[in-house]
């Protein structure tokens, strides 16, 4: 694969502390994610996310993440937090995902897929989620929660999507360079790989993660 000229976007997911959000902005991170999925150790109440959202610097996107939440819960978050993007990780269909007047990213479980089915997988995704602004390829298995640090086989990333994709799943400062060079994603997303405990981001890991993505962006291949 030949290298393109764009800058790889970075999203830090599962933010729970205002100081972590501020440091992410200072590091030049493009988006931060607030998790509303039931059972997640990073789960926020809308009021908590709203407080962090109101303190955010301009030109940084807030992404609200759901997994099989009710429409009322999604609406409450949209009203209070004003995210610029929604991200769905459950069995929500396209009609549900696009029903809130906010662009959406669809999280796709990638565990155990067949590398020979990359093109077919892309077609299936485009047919199933025509309204998605982007896909986020994640390391977990179908029905499982994300944010668990599981890497999937990058050779299964669908080809010929014609839409941006975000690579996720077990990315860390020590593997994100290879991940970017191998898959040339529109963006990368990380939760546990920049944490000292679930929801508690580690400043040094955050900084090193961003440096490694930038190093990959400058790499000639
Ligand atoms: O982060 C969570 O707790 C979570 C819970 C339920 C569904 C999805 C969740 N996270 C999705 C993300 O976007 C994570 O950033 C992604 O799974 C990568 O996580 P990690 O492998 O820990 O970097």
From TrEMBL:
GO terms for molecular function: phosphoribosylanthranilate isomerase activity. InterPro entries: Aldolase_TIM, PRAI_dom, RibuloseP-bd_barrel, TrpF_fam. It catalyses: N-(5-phospho-beta-D-ribosyl)anthranilate = 1-(2-carboxyphenylamino)-1-deoxy-D-ribulose 5-phosphate. CDD domains: PRAI. Its EC number is 5.3.1.24. GO terms for biological process: L-tryptophan biosynthetic process. Residues 11-211 form the N-(5'phosphoribosyl) anthranilate isomerase (PRAI) domain. Pathway: Amino-acid biosynthesis; L-tryptophan biosynthesis; L-tryptophan from chorismate: step 3/5. It comes from the Bacteria. Coiled coil: none annotated. Keywords: Amino-acid biosynthesis, Aromatic amino acid biosynthesis, Isomerase, Tryptophan biosynthesis. Belongs to the TrpF family. This is N-(5'-phosphoribosyl)anthranilate isomerase.
């Amino acid at each position: 694969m030949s290298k393109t000229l764009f800058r790889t976007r970075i999203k830090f997911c599962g933010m729970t502390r205002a100081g972590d959000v501020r440091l992410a902005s200072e590091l030049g991170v493009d988006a931060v994610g607030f998790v509303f999925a039931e059972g997640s150790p990073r789960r926020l109440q809308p009021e908590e996310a709203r407080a962090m959202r109101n303190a955010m610097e301009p030109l940084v996107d807030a992404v609200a993440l759901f997994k099989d939440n009710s429409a009322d819960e999604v609406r409450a978050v949209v009203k209070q937090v004003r995210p610029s993007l929604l991200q769905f990780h459950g069995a929500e269909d396209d009609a549900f995902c696009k029903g809130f007047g906010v662009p959406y990213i669809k999280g796709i479980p990638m565990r155990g897929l067949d590398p020979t089915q990359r093109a077919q997988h892309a077609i299936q995704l485009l047919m199933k989620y025509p309204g998605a602004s982007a896909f986020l390829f994640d390391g977990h298995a179908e029905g499982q929660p994300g944010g668990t640090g599981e890497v999937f086989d990058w050779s299964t990333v669908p080809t010929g999507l014609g839409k941006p994709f975000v690579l996720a799943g077990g990315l860390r400062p020590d593997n994100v360079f290879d991940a970017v060079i191998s898959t040339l994603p529109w963006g990368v997303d990380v939760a546990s790989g920049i944490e000292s405990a679930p929801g508690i981001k580690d400043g040094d890991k955050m900084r090193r993660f961003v440096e490694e993505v930038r190093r990959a962006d400058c790499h000639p291949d």
